[in-house]
Amino acid sequence: METSPLAKTLWGLFGTVSMLFLLSPIILVVVFSFGENRLATLPMEGLTFKWYGKLMADPNFWSALENSLIVTLSVGAISTVVGTLAAMALARWRPGAANAAMMTLSLPVMMPPLVLALALATVLSSLGFRFGLHTVIPSHLVFTQPFVILIVYAQMVNFNFGMLDSARDLGASARQAFFTIVLPNIRSTLIGAALIAMSVSLDDFIITFFTIGNGMTLPTLVWGMLRTALDPSINALGTLILIATITSSAIALSITRYRG
């Protein structure tokens, strides 16, 4: 049955309103980061970059940025290496056993972040660790590792391991076989998986807040600024985090040829 023009109009209007409702908070954060107004209010008095200048002049921003880069790059590198090895192992398992293992490995992603953060903080504290970046990194690996394993496994499950076995039979070492046969076939997938893990790590607040102690990353800096200084430099910082997250995610999805 053909949809009437009125129904098409109503559905289009509903879709537009829904998109505006979902995106308007993000749009306003970006808009107010360029506003002259000291408070996030309309109408705007003019456009300016002074809030970005104020943010760049804040030493806490550079300290938080350094910590975020350390955590994000470490998580990206470690999760890619470990996730690739795990995915290669799972790809050789029987499908039923591999699916069960994948479901188990995905549990941290499905858990409420607050519960996971509390559990990680409790375990680390009971083991006698002092909180810092060295506790944030393994905590982030708990919930970023499943993304890498899932993405790489989807590529490796159709890989012809016979080529790898043939290379070993012809005298190639495990390292040579991996770098000459496996890596060229999954290089783009690894880059995409690493970028997704890094974007998830960069954007995390709850688990970082519970495990970082006295340090700061960019998301926890936003939290601190909200408690002490309500000015548009917070919006400027939020805009920078948003750009970094969207850019890395878009590149990752493009590289891995994600189709939804």
UniProtKB/TrEMBL annotation:
InterPro entries on file: Bact_Polyamine_Transport, MetI-like, MetI-like_sf
Gene3D superfamilies per UniProt: MetI-like
Membrane topology: Multi-pass membrane protein
Primary localization: membrane
Compartment(s) where it occurs, according to its Swiss-Prot or TrEMBL record: Cell membrane
Domain ABC transmembrane type-1 per the UniProt entry, residue ranges: 65-252
UniProt keyword list: Cell membrane, Membrane, Transmembrane, Transmembrane helix, Transport
Signal peptide: none
Name of this chain's protein: Polyamine transporter PotC
Organism: Hypericibacter terrae
Gene coding for it: potC
